[in-house]
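Annotated sample (chain length 620).
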Amino acid sequence: MRASALLLVPFEPGSAHACDPSLRRTLGAHLDLPLRQALCELEAQLGFRFDSAPVFAGVPLARGPHRSLTGIALATALDHAGIDCCVLDPGPCELHVWRKLLRASARDAPALVGVSSTFITSRPWLEALLGEVRAAFPSSVLAVGGYYYTTDTEGFLSLDAEVLCVGEGEVRLPELARRVASGAPLDDIPGLYLRQADGSLKSTGRAEPLDLAGLVPPDWSFASRVRPPVDPQKLDYVGLETQRGCAFMCAFCTYRTLASPASLPPALAAERILAVGGEHYVELYDATATSPRARWQQLCARLAEAQRPQLAVGAFARVSDLDAASAALMGRAGVRHVYIGQESGDQALLNAMRKGTKLAQVLPAIHALGCHGISVTFGLIHGFPGESASSLAATRALLGEVNASRPDAPTVFSYDLTPFSLQDFAAVSTDETLRADHHHFLGYRSGDFTVPRICEEILRTIVHTGRCSHAPVAQLVFQRALALPTSRIATSRARPGIFRWAKALERGVGIFLERLLDGTRPDPRELDEVARRVLAPYDVRRRPLATLSSRVEASVVARLRREWSAEQDAGVGPLTRALVASLRRRTPSPAIPRARAHAQALLSTTDRRYVTADQLGRQR
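Output written by the structure step:
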């Protein structure tokens, strides 16, 4: 029997950068591969590969199975609408894994295949995946949705698909599946671009934002029905939205353009959190959970009144919303971790970003959170227009200062550092001072800062924080060694010990980054101390084969770095050609031309205006 719908939720793997020439020459050559080479050289020094979980207080710190809120929410919506569907949500994996999953689903013969682009940054990798879909389901209607269109609008609209969906999908995806299965027209479903016979696109108009309270809550029991099946009890966390959109207009961000601001009433939001919390850590994906402050306080009060000692919640926060009283309430409500988009340690740069926060708010907010056991991850950006040596120094100084008052029990556990990206829907994309190649979100130059220079500064920030025993840990370091689960770190009694171990790992990688950047010779005594601390949570002995394999990998990575760095002038190198061929193994689905006019029309309907800091305050 012909099924109604098959939904794919792809997370591109790290190797996707190898398939994308622009990413190879920027992030690949100047950030990813240097980090990978430094890690391999540390492993060779240790005689140990980071392929097992460290143990703290008798508990292995290992990530549980993957399941995304996107997959669960859309599976719930399709099931509630009575649509016969299958959802594939395997997490980051190579194209050959997708090929096997698609072949296994071929017997379902879906009328509609939907692909989410939310977790994709590489157009060539996405095109290659669509090629696999076309090969597996040549007679199915292909629809692509998700957030990639805000990053690369022309690229999104040029994808080989019959339907391109802009905006929220919980209502439109079931309606699409229903109509495609019955052969009914799609022209009156708003928020679509429909591919015409001549390759052009037809817009069906703007889609109105959804009422969150009217949507069926994500049913996390579907974790066992989405493929590959996962036991819901083994998940590290469950995701939930109680707000969409954002009232703030940070110049670098596209989130506010994805959906108009909408939220659940505090009582209903608390009810939904409590319904899934207790057995699971609850990760709130609200862009600014702590704003508006009055709503957040009402929500936290409801959670605190429920008196669920096992409840653990993570959320996005703004330092301007955090003081002693709010942190105390959050602690009673079960909030255990917050992600703060700090972005920079330089006030002038924050003002240029239209961030609407003050540096003077940071240390009091962190102190308040620390007093109530709430851990923090900082989000930081290097390379926003106006970045300078002094602004970089200010950011590094903030990282060195933020935990100074609690060096033995740091509040800010880690920082997530990324290069500025020039996304199409971001307000800063209209900045005429940027010398930009609009064919790629990393194709720009901001003053003296090219993307390779920005990547180098990221590496130098990692080296800098590695030298400071109480500075937050760079997530880029331990993500490449082990994908450590934030939820487990935030709720672990061994968090101080985990922090000290992660700092040792960071310093070890930093030692070899220094050698790559400046030719600095490692200090054998410091390496011995790093080895002692890094290997302490493992029951292992040094293994000669681990040393050999790490040295071989480091050599291969170094060769790739040279090829990718020189690719602009020398062309694609032989090792790169072999790597791309092994990863892809099929001709990508062709991009459809004639997308530029449609991209310009879509961007022209989007409000990318700046607002002043005092207007931001009033919006709160």
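Annotation: The CA atoms of residues 74 and 169 lie 7 Å apart.
Annotation: The mean pLDDT is 92.
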